[in-house]
Specification:
Blueprint (H helix, E strand, L loop, with lengths): L2 H16 L7 H11 L11 E5 L2 E4 L4 E3 L3 H4 L8 H13 L10 H13 L7 E5 L2 H17 L8 E5 L8 H6 L3 H4 L9 E4 L4 H7 L4 E6 L15 H12 L2 E5 L21 E4 L10 E5 L2 H4 L30 H12 L10 H9 L2
Length: 358
């Protein structure tokens, strides 16, 4: 078999598998979905078959303006030429190598993230596949920090009421919503939730028994909730005084969602987690650790992932918003997306322009 024949064989096989689905409409496909996929998401609203920019089409050929963006993921829209060219080119070059090896793309993205985060010398990056996996890494980082306490007292981890950090067991322990938690209890112990944005509650809770404080700079699933002015800075001051880690979950807010690279800019944490928009639609998560002391808490063999940081996922895919011109880039995004007089535009074309943002 020639190389071209070998390359064509998988395509032919996939086409054969999809042949029985071509031409089917939403209701037919949703029926087959319910017969073959686990119902953890309920029944999907539509079967989407194509996307371009901020527009998607369903199996019935109906066009929709996508204001969901894959839940804060498709930051550059659907089928963006930069993303598709980088991913397809890399996949055709080197797709997966395991964590016994590294690749230039993995190193390049790590260096870029450290630069964007203004991370000091000794800072590091760990790549995962999703936001919840990045938060699992951060959870283990907090445990290692606590276990380094000679007196064995640093056993508490603080999170906020209404917080959402993921659905795997460690991240779920940090998550507030009881309907998510209760079916899977007992969860990992030692996590306490305190009122979000309450400075007095924060002061009362943070002491030498706390290993880490987890905070979303803006709470996402809770309904896009911020905090009083100075709350994040207070959390930094209190954790530093108590010797606890401050960990920002920027899975929802990172990579330009708030008009800057990170919503927490101006307050340097000990660790920060990213995902969603970082991959522009391709699965990737990351944890950035700040400074040498925190970055050496997890050593060889103490954490890992098979697919995290594979050559396809990490290519730095943000040339339009490089550090040198990011201010103008993000201000353009904010200006285009800002509602006029407190209202979103009524016309479809105006809403489409706002959805494109940048």
């Amino acid at each position: 078999m020639t190389q071209s024949q070998a390359a064509a064989a998988p395509t032919a096989e996939v086409s054969a598998q999809l042949a029985g689905l071509e031409g089917l409409h939403n209701q037919d496909l949703l029926g087959r979905y319910n017969q073959s996929l686990m119902g953890v998401f309920g029944t999907p609203q539509r079967v989407l078959v194509r996307g371009s920019g901020c527009t998607v089409w369903d199996a019935d050929g109906k066009e929709y303006l996508d204001l969901l963006g894959g839940i804060a993921v498709n930051a550059l829209g659907h089928a963006h030429p930069l993303v598709t060219s980088v991913v397809s080119s890399q996949l055709a070059t080197l797709g997966h190598v395991s964590n016994f090896f590294t690749s230039p793309t993995q190193i390049a993205l790590a260096e870029k993230l450290l630069g964007l985060a203004a991370a000091p010398a000794g800072s590091k990056v760990f790549f995962a596949n999703s936001g919840t996996e990045a938060n699992e890494a951060a959870f283990k980082l907090a445990r290692r920090h606590g276990n380094n306490d000679a007196g064995g007292k640093r056993v508490r981890i603080l999170a906020l009421e209404n917080a959402f950090h993921g659905r795997t067991m460690g991240a779920l322990a940090l998550t507030w919503k009881q309907s998510y938690r209760e079916p899977f209890e007992p969860l990992p112990a030692g996590v306490e939730h305190i009122p979000a944005g309450d400075a007095d509650a924060l002061r009362a809770a943070v002491d030498e028994t706390v290993a880490a404080v987890f905070i979303e700079p803006i709470q996402g699933e809770a309904g896009v909730r911020g905090y009083p002015e100075g709350y994040l800075r207070l959390a930094r001051e209190l954790t530093r005084e108590a010797g606890a880690l401050l960990i920002f979950d920027e899975v929802q807010t990172g990579i330009g969602r708030t008009g800057k690279w990170f919503a927490s800019e101006g307050v340097l944490p000990d660790a920060m987690t990213l995902a969603k928009g970082l991959g522009g639609g391709f699965p990737i998560g990351a944890m950035i650790t700040f400074g040498d002391e925190v970055s050496t808490l997890l050593t060889a063999g103490q954490h890992g992932t098979t697919f995290g940081g594979n050559p396809v996922a990490p290519p730095p895919r943000w040339p339009p918003c490089t550090p040198s011109n990011r201010s103008s880039c993000w201000s353009t995004c904010g200006r285009r997306a800002k509602p006029s007089a407190g209202r979103w535009p009524d016309s479809t074309s105006s809403r489409r322009s706002a959805a494109r943002a940048c």
